[in-house]
Amino acid sequence: MKLMIASDIHGSAFYCEQMLEAYRREGADRLLILGDILYHGPRNDLPEGYAPKEVIAMLNPMKTHLLCVRGNCDTEVDQMVLEFPVMADYCFLELPAGGTKDRETEPERTDVCMETISIFATHGHVYHPNHLPPMKDGDILLNGHTHIPACEELTDTRGNRYRYLNPGSVSIPKEGSAHSYMIYENGCFRWKNIQGEEYMTWKTDSRS
Question: Which of 51, 79, 111, 166 holds its CA 20 to 30 A away from the CA of 159?
Fold first, then answer.
């Protein structure tokens, strides 16, 4: 399973096209969009190539490839013109972690269970590092919203540890970050700029 993760297109046809080019180049199985698809929002300047109708025309033919959660700039009006669901506040993903249980003790077995990782994916305006959703120790919180790439360890008041990941923004990156996206494959998250150049990596087997 190869998953591409992107967020905060904000109506930029220019960067939406580059995002889809990256998706095809990566050969990913699905594209997870973490919200804020069509509208630029009152706190943001217009992104380069702002043309929401063109974004609609590019994304609708890709509807069978897309998973999406609702951003704070996404509304029922947007859902009326988009042919894939965008109004869920979060989704919960259980992905293969790239390893198998008991691999070291029983390397010849083929019937062992595949290890998985649990991801709570949401935009980030409701659930975020300062307001965690219900999660188990070792789960991953995946947000967009801030427009800033992130890979941080979080600890709650009970001592449970989580990992907070953020792909940054496709169209309006902030704090000097790149126009970027993430790839998940075989237990590894990779952050890449829109040209496909990798600049950060986190392997799930490094959780400890």
Answer: 166
Instruction: Indicate if the pLDDT at residue 128 is higher than 70.
Output: yes
- pTM here? 0.91
Nearest-angstrom CA–CA distance, 173 and 179: 6
Quote the CA–CA distance of 174 and 102 in Å, as a whole number.
43
What does each C-alpha distance from 159 to 108, 156, 201, 202, 207 come to in angstroms? 37, 5, 25, 22, 15
Give me 180's structure tokens.
Answer: 């970027």
Exposure class string for 112-136: b at 16+ Cβ within 10 A, else e: eeebbbebbbbbbbebbeeebeebe
Query: In which element (H, E) is residue 130 found?
Result: none
pLDDT of residue 97: 85
Across the strands, what pairs with 90?
122
- Residue whose C-alpha is closest to residue 34's, from 128, 166, 194: 166
Q: How many Å apart are CA 66 and CA 85, to the nearest integer? A: 9
Of 185, 175, 180, give the one whose Cα is nearest residue 200: 180
